[in-house]
Structure formats: C-alpha cells, structure tokens
Amino acid sequence: MKNRNAEVARFITIPLSHYCEKARWALDRAALPYREEPHIPLLHRLSTKRSGGGTVPVLIHAGRCFVESTAILVLADNFSGGALYPQDAGQRHQVESLVARFDRELGPHTRRWAYAQLLSDTALLRRIWATRAPRAETLLLPVIVPLARRLVRAGYRVTPESGQRSIERVHGIFREVEERLRDGRRYLVGDRFSAADLGFAALAAPVLFPAGCRAVLPALDEVPAAVREEVLRLRDTDAGRFALRLYLQERDTPAAARSATA
Ligand SMILES: N[C@@H](CCC(=O)N[C@@H](CS)C(=O)NCC(=O)O)C(=O)O
C-alpha cells in the first residue's frame, strides 16, 4: 500500500516571514499537501542548513529541496497544471519579471521598514516570534531575542533612516503597480490571477497587515500610531486596495476547487 505520508511535503518556515506567506499561498492554491514546520528565528537555520538552504522558506518535496520562495511557486504551478503562470510565453515572461522585481525590492523594503519600526519592542517581538513555534524553542526566546535582534539589524541594515528610505521605495513600487492597474485590469498580467499578483500581495503584507494573510503579524492596535497611520495610508491607495482584494478573493481558493466548480 502506498504511504500517503511520503507525499506530504515538509515546509520549513518562520511564521512571521512574508516570503513564507508567498510560498504558503502558492502551496495552498495548488492544493499541494504539506506539513508546516515553524521555527523561531536563528533556530530555523538548524533545519534549513540540513536541506542545503539558509533562509526560509524551504520545501522538501518528493526528495527534492526547494530553497527559494519563487522555486516553490514554480513547483506549485507544475503540480497544479498551471495555476500560477500563464501559458502564453510573453505573459509568462512579464509574470517572471514582476515576481523577480518584487522579490528583489518590495520584500526587502517592506521588511526593513517594519523592522525599523518594531524591532525595539521586545515584548512584541517575543510574542510574534513565539506564535506557532514549538514550545521547546519558545522557551529559548529570552536568550534568542537580543541576539536575533542584533543580527536582523545588521543583516538587513535596519536604521531609522534606512527604514524611511525603504518606505519611500515601497510607495514607488505601489505607484508602479497602480500604473499597471490604471486601465481597469483586475490582475497585473493578463486576465487571471498569477504569481505576479501573489508575489505583490504576499510581499506587501508587512506594510498592509492584510486580513486573510497567514503570516503572523501584529494587530494594528498594538503597533505605534505612526505605523498604524502608514499602514492605513497604504491600504487607502489603489495598489493597497488591490492587494487586500487579492487576500479576500484569491487567498483561500485552491486551484483544484476552482477547476472543479468552473
Ligand atoms: N530569496 C529568498 C528570501 C527569503 C528571506 O529573505 N527569508 C528571510 C525571512 S523573510 C529569512 O529567512 N531570514 C532569516 C535568515 O536569513 O536566516 C526567498 O525568496 O526565499
């Protein structure tokens, strides 16, 4: 008899991570069975290194390790028979370029801005990093938080000034997205949801705190007023509204269920 467990992928994450949310969204949409293995920062490396990676997410599926979120999107697309990338070569190229651009710029800048605002709040960090992580790991948080905070600050070059520059870059990317949407289209490329829309919405999560997002984010009422105001400002843009709509309409719709009901 076939061992069904062997077909369940292992998905190594830090629950707060927006790159993990990007991959999780793709796996959910493709209805690719996986078991999430959430970790607190730093301890994730014990698992990712074993799989030949470093950052999260990492997915181990059918004996292969996928150590980049975009590689997980491509796998999810193949698994589902095309749920995320268009057939048309020109459109596919546009989707790939947008995904790469969001990976390179949007993700790092939304993250840096959020960390610049929240990294000094030890209680908040502890609570967010502990959510969904194994209890044995959360017991180490009093030791890990100061260390991880230093590494995050140095690794992502987080300062009040860089945080400010990052949010300006985020506004710039939002304006570019709005430019694309100006003709009334519902999706960034073509007339259906693709990896480009998913990449934008997932990597914008740290500046939108969207309802429906499965990454662990603070509640709006527990962050400083300046953060709340910036989030509300970005939510109230066309690009912000677009991302929030994607969470409402596209986050919980596996491709399998969609084609069964189409
Ligand atoms: N290019 C990577 C970026 C992933 C990434 O930056 N992950 C962050 C969390 S948002 C991470 O793992 N940070 C901890 C580390 O660098 O070990 C991808 O798309 O998967």
TrEMBL record:
InterPro entries, per the entry = Glutathione-S-Trfase_C-like, Glutathione-S-Trfase_C_sf, Glutathione_S-Trfase_N, Thioredoxin-like_sf
Source organism of the structure: Solimonas terrae
Ordered alphabetically, the record's keywords are: Transferase
| Pfam families from the UniProt entry | GST_C_2, GST_N_3
Indicate the segments forming the GST N-terminal domain, all copies.
7-84
* Single GO MF annotation: transferase activity
Instruction: Report what the protein is called.
Output: Glutathione S-transferase family protein
Can you tell which superkingdom this protein's organism belongs to? Bacteria
Per its UniProt record, what PROSITE patterns does this chain match? GST_CTER (PS50405), GST_NTER (PS50404)
The record ties this protein, via SUPFAM superfamilies, to: GST C-terminal domain-like, Thioredoxin-like
Domain GST C-terminal stretches:
88-255
From the UniProt annotation, give the residues forming the signal peptide.
none
